[in-house]
Amino acid sequence: MDLLLSNKVAIVTGASRGIGKAIAETLSVEGVRVALVARSRAGLESLAKALPNESLVRAIDLREPDSANQIVNAAIATFGGLDLLVNNAGATKRGDFLALSDEEWTDGFALKFYAAMRLSRAAWPHLQASRGGIINIIGIGGHKGSAEFTIGGAVNAALMNLTKALADRGVKDGVRVNAINPGSITTERLQTRIRKYAKENDIDLEEAAKRLPREMKVERFGEPAEIAHAVAFLASSQAAYIQGAILDVDGGATRAL
Question: Is 243 exposed, middle or buried (0-12, 13-18, 19+ CB in 10 A)?
Answer without folding.
Answer: middle
